[in-house]
Each structure stands twice: as structure tokens, then as C-alpha cells.
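tmp note - Thiol-disulfide isomeras and thioredoxin
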Amino acid sequence: MKRRAFILASLSLGGALAARPALAAPRGQRGLVIHDQPRPVAAIDIRDAESRPAGLDTLKGKPVLLNLWASWCMPCVAELPALDRLKPALDAQGVALVALSLDRSGKVAVANTFARLGIKNLDIRTDENRVAAEKLDAPALPVTLLIDAQGREVARFIGAAEWDGVPAARLLDTLAAGTRPTPDMAPPPVRMGTAP
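out:
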């Protein structure tokens, strides 16, 4: 998928997921999408702040909350502080939180955004090959994948969520426990008036 098409889809749909065959949610769907069966997660090349490999394969045996974001995406930036506050609690539960930047300028954009927002707990993670959105079937941002300890996607949240609130805690507890989430566990969406 070309970057221009990706950006246009993100902007024109206001963060909603565009229609795609196979794994995509229905056009315009937002919120929590729970899969009937766990789905394999495509291999993607994730890099750390020093451009070393830091992919999902380094987290084998751990559940993962994988957030796809970009600095130019206002809803993405709005949910980053909640993810930052959430990370220590997830670490204590044995759940990895990976905030993967899809920015074209890579770690520079991430470092600048983190500094501007006062992000202290999230690690710099980038998609230097710029293929994660296509491989993970996420043509609009933000999208957060809930990946079980076997490395399979069990659910995803389309749009920006309040990840550090009580409703999200129930959803994340099920991820940590390896149990099936239910629709009533959906965290509320971020109100854009709260964007930093």
C-alpha cells in the first residue's frame, strides 16, 4: 500500500478502518473487534531507538498490546499519554506494550513526540520498512492489536481509546490471563478535546 493512499484513508475516514478483503473489519467500524478465532500475526520488522531488531518475536510467550500510531495522527497522539501511564502496570502483569510508530522520519518523529508529550515509559519502536500497516491490515490509525501469549491476534481496537481507565483494565486483565474478551470490556474512545 502506498503511503499517500494510507494517509488519505486515515484522513478521509477520520480514523475508521477502510474496507479491505480478508481480515479487515467492515467499513467504518470503530471500537473493539473480537475475533471468532485467534488470527496469526504477520512478521514485521520493528526497530528500537538504536535501530536494533525489537520485533514481536523477541516477546514470545508474552501477551502483547501492539499500538500502531503516527505523530501526524491526532487521535494517535491523544491516546499516547494513557498508554504511557499504563505501561508499568502491564509490565507488572507480564503483558508487553509496544507503541509502534509508522512515521516516515522514524525515531526522530517518535523522540520529538515523546518529548513534547512528556512520555517516560514507552520505548521508541519504529517500522523502518513502512510495511506494518499493510501487513497487519490496518489502513487507518490508530489501531491497537491484542495479541495472546501464542502470538495470535485475539482482538483489536480501532480508533483512540482511554487505555488507563477502569473499563480498559478488565479487557487487559483478560489479555494477561489468556481468556476471551467480551464486547462489554471495550474502553471508551478518547475525546478529542483532551488531545495534548
